[in-house]
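Support case: glutamine complex. Customer-provided input:
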Amino acid sequence: MSLYQLTAKELHRKLCNKECSAREVTESVLGRIDACEERVGAYVTLDREGALAAAGEVDKKIAAGEAIGPLAGIPVAVKDNICTKDVLTTCSSRMLYNFRPPYDATVVERLRSAGYVMTGKANMDEFAMGSSTETSYFKKTANPHDLARVPGGSSGGSAAAVAAGEAVLSLGSDTGGSIRQPASLCGVIGLKPTYGSVSRYGLVAFASSLDQIGPFGRCVEDVAALYGVICGKDPMDATTARRDYPDFAAALKGDVKGLRIGIPKEYFGPGVDPEVKELVYAALKELESAGAVLRELSLPGTDHALSAYYIISSAEASSNLARFDGVKYGFRAEEYDGLTDMYEKTRSQGFGDEVQRRIMLGTFVLSSGYYDAYYNKAKLFQKALRAEFADAFQDCDLIATPTSPTVAFRLGENTGDPLKMYAADICTVTVNIAGLPGLSVPCGLSQGLPVGMQLIGPRFSEQRLFDAAYGFQTIRGGSLCGIPALA
Ligand code: GLN
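Agent response - structure generated as follows:
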C-alpha cells in the first residue's frame, strides 16, 4: 500500500513511530497527483515547493523529538475561495485570476500552526455557485469514480482530490450543500459545520449568513480531527461562537444504542432516485440492528426550501460581489470608455453566466417593491423552518436523509438547465437555512457510483454526528471510502 492511500490517522501513527517521514508522505501524494491530475483536474493551483518545505519543517520537529499533532505532515487541499497568503486564490473566476491574498484565512492560519502540508488550491464552481464544478472559469473536474461524470459542487475539486488520493484531507465551503453533495457524489465524508462554529475570516463571501467552511476526509476520525483544528471563536469573525469544543476525534464513541434517528418523509419523495432511497434505508436498518431507534417524521417546510435558498443566497451574493469592480482586485476590462463603462465591461467579462444570473436575481429580490414579496418572505420562511427543526429534535437526536437525490450526473448533462441544476440541492439547503450541522457519509454504490447519507443534528451537535457516523463506519467494517483505480 502506498502512503497516499492511508488516512491521516494512520499516517500520524507512522510519523510518530518514524516508519516514514513527512517528506515521503508528501512525495507520495505529489506522485499520485502526477499520475492522475490530468484526468481528474481537482486543482486550480498546485504548490509543490510549499508542500515539500512544510513537510521538511515537520520532519525537523520529529527529528528534534518534539511532539506533533494529528495534522502535522498531512497533505491537505484547500478550496480556492479560502485565502492563502501569497498563493493564488481565484474562486475559479476570471475576476480573481491573478489575486494573491496578502493574508491567510483564519482556518489556514490554524492549519499552518498545526503543521499541515498544503498541496494546492482546489477547483470549484465560480464563486461557489453551482453543484457540479462546471462553472469554473479554468477547468472541469471529473469524478474519480467515473471520469465522464461530475464530482458535484461547488467544492468538487476538494472532494475529488480526497477521493482520488490526491490529498489526504481537504477544506471546502458549504452555502447550500457544497461540501455534502460533492462528498456524496465522490464517496467521501464531508461535514458542513454549525453556522458560527468555524471562522469565515478569509473566506471569499458568497452568502454570509449561510457560508461555512468544513472538512472532507476518508474516515470519520480524520474529519473529526480536521474540524477540531479549524473550529472555535475567532476575534476576526464576530459570528463565531465562544464555547468549549471537545477533542472530537479522541471522544469518538461507536455505540449507537438508543440513538433516536428521525426519518423525514419529505426527503424520500418522488424527486429522489429509488436506488438512492433504498441504499439510505438499508443503512438505517443496519443502524437499527445495532440499537438505534428509527422514527418517521415530517418536515413540511422542505417544499419551499429551494425557493427560499435561492432568494436569500442570491440577495446576499449580489451585495457581496459588488466589491469586484475592476478597481480593488483582479481583473479589469482592457478597453472602456469612462468609469461606468469600465465597471460594466469588467463585470460582464470577469463574471461567468451563473454568477451574473445570481447577481441579477439577487438585485431583483432586494429592489424596492419586490423586497417584501420575495426577500422578506424568504426570511420569514427561514424562521418557520428553524422552528420546525427544533420541534423535530424534541423527538429525535438526529435526522437522516439522502444527501443528493441522484448519483453523479454526466458532465454537461445539466449545464443547459439551471433549474435542474438547482434541484441537486433539494436535500441540503434546509440545513444551511436553519444554521445546523450536516454530515454526509457514503452508504453504498448504485451502479458503481457512490451514494451518501446525510445526518443532521441540532446546533453544535457535531460530536453526536461524528459518533453516529463512526458507529456506522464500525458496522461497515471500519472503512467507508475506498480510492478508485481511475479506469
Ligand atoms: N449548489 C448550491 C448553489 O449553487 C450550493 C452552493 C454552495 O453551497 N456553495 O448555490
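The two ends are 19 Å apart (CA to CA).

Case will auto-close in a few days if no follow-up is received.
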